[in-house]
Amino acid sequence: QVTLVESGGGSVQMGGSLRLSCAASGRRFSDHAMAWFRQGPGKEREFVAVISGNGLSILYSDSVRGRFTIARDNAKNTVHLQMNSLKPEDTGIYYCAAKLYDPTISGTGEHLYDTWGQGTQVTVSS
Question: SS3 for 124?
Answer without folding.
Answer: strand
